[in-house]
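Why do we care about 3D structure at all? Because function follows from shape, and shape follows, mostly, from sequence. That is the central idea of this module. The next example makes it concrete: a single protein chain, its amino acid sequence, and then its structure expressed as tokens.
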Amino acid sequence: MPLTGPSPDLTGAALILEGGGLRGNYTAGVLRYFMDQGLYFPYVVGVSMGACNGSNYVARQPERNRIVNTRFVRDSRFLSYRRLLAGGGLFGMPFVFGTIPLKLVPFDFDQFFANDQRHVITVTDCATGAPRYYEKKDLGRRHFLRILQAGCSLPLLQKPVRFDGRVLMDGGIADPIPLGQSMADGNTRHVLILTQPRGYIKKASPFAAFVRLRYGHYPALVHSFAHRHQRYNETMTRLDELEARAAIFTIRPKAPLAVGRAERNKDKLYAIYDMGYHDAAAQYDALKGYLSRPPEGGRP
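And the structure:
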């Protein structure tokens, strides 16, 4: 059922999308519900899979997230441990960011670039270990998919992406939940779709030593990767505090999602997609109430 009653004033409202690999199917379900309601935020910032899901939301393609994130998971061109062991990436990036959006499940570039929604992709600069943010208006068709790929390239699993004299990787290393960037861009109300439940605590990566061996020529990246769990946990603590005083609004699963970052079980992926859809429906009245607050009243 489409949005009913007076539409909330979305001035200064931002949508912030966490990553998490194929756990992002939960986010895809939430976004599908938003699209069914005709709810489109003027500002969208995403990390890794969150940026991919956000792209289809901005392109007004309701089914594309579900199709892309489930149809190809058993296809070795999409995901292959054999390719990873042979020195390639876990995900076949030329297939994921070339064949699929350009041929198999076409991405609507015209709609994406024509509408006035801002779309921001988070990446990590390997030289500095710090986040960088690329906006669709500055990328154009030529560079958009390349930056989207960079934002999804995790150390050890994918190769870095070179762009504009920089070496870039997954944005979740440096800024897993870019609330700060949303604030810096002038937004005053922030809706976050998270892929981990309340109370989740990220542990130090057991692969930090391997990252140090592989990317020792990028010491800032190595440091950022080794400490990303601390940054993530500090961010989650802050989000809980902000949510407790209604300064932000979150939609997140009630329990850990029973899928892995590289999940290949389609039934599980469909299940978390449906979970996201129903969680969004259950919280929709509360969300409209949050968005109905005066724009100047929501700065954290």
